[in-house]
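In the laboratory, one determines a bound structure by crystallizing the protein with its ligand and collecting diffraction data. In a computational setting the workflow is compressed into a single prediction: the sequence and the ligand go in, and a structural description comes out. We illustrate the idea with adenosine-5'-diphosphate.
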Amino acid sequence: VTSSARARIAVLYNVDFERQGAGGASYEADAEVRETADAVAHALEKHGYTPELLAVDDELSPLERAAATGRFAAVFNLVESLGGDAAREPDVPELLDRLGVAYTGNSAPALRVAHAKDRTRRRLAEHGVPIPGGVAVGAGEVASVAAAQLRYPLFVKPARTDASIGIDQSSIVRDASALARRLEQLATLVPGPYLVEEYLPGREVNVAIFPEPIEGHLVCTHIDFSACAEGVAPIVTYDCKWRPGTPDYNARSLPSSGILSAEEIAAARSVARAAFLAIGATSYGRVDLRGGADGRFYVIDVNPNPDIHPEAGMSIAARSIGVEHDALAAGILRTALARRSP
Ligand SMILES: Nc1ncnc2c1ncn2[C@@H]1O[C@H](COP(=O)(O)OP(=O)(O)O)[C@@H](O)[C@H]1O
Ligand SMILES: [Mg+2]
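The predicted complex, in structure-token form:
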């Protein structure tokens, strides 16, 4: 342990979002990574490490150069996209594996599966993890949805984005014409494929997993929509997450202990762990679930590289069991260092 104290840690984050400018479709979601990097650096300092912020944009050469100096004991990887492309997120752990450098978070295969929600759904189904009825379609493929015989209301979302990008109140569609309209509208905003799923009317629960899924914590929080304006559907839209002052904004994450029953919490944790392991995740993350009309939990989203901003759901969950943000970050780093110790 003493050897890792004062160890130099590269806190790696992406700056590619700066190109889209503050008016960009997902600027708020993307720009937060800088604040997260600062907070993680502070946390690591507090725990006796020597953090150095390292930014990447399109190319990974700054990381390769830094790694080649041999002065970093590990990389705290916060990168969510490269060159504006979230599909390139796995390039970072892939490179670090090749270079033999320890890093926090999940490996490339898990990130790759999770990036494509259609692929995630297939993987979960193969592992017997409950998911809502649904189908992946391209722009305008209304006929494929009809063929899948799903039950309305349906929920339409981009299959290759996260952070609620492309999600607003009209993501819930009640008939075929609303579905066609929504698919058409979404195609102007985000490239396909898109997922059309049966709308899950029950409670939305997030299970935070840290520092790893086998011996680590699985902490349930749920989203309380009660302060949202009248008539606003209880879903986490982009406005809900990122735009203070909008009618959707007033949702908040609450610790579930004492509010959900012990049985509900146990069920949520078990489904979440199964989902996380099914995508091959070995580090921290968050699994999003919702209750179906039958009262059971279904997986809507697996996040093997979740936001660990001090105010993000992950940190709220950790705090609810007495793990402050700095301890969360230090714990994640310790697991990464232990993975690589001989
Ligand atoms: N099948 C569904 N039924 C009901 N709501 C859903 C469904 N899928 C997604 N949502 C809502 O949309 C939000 C964002 O979807 P999610 O799949 O978690 O994508 P993201 O990666 O953007 O977080 C969820 O938090 C939830 O409120
Ligand atoms: Mg989600």
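The longest strand covers residues 217-224. Keep in mind that any predicted model is a hypothesis to be tested, not a measurement.
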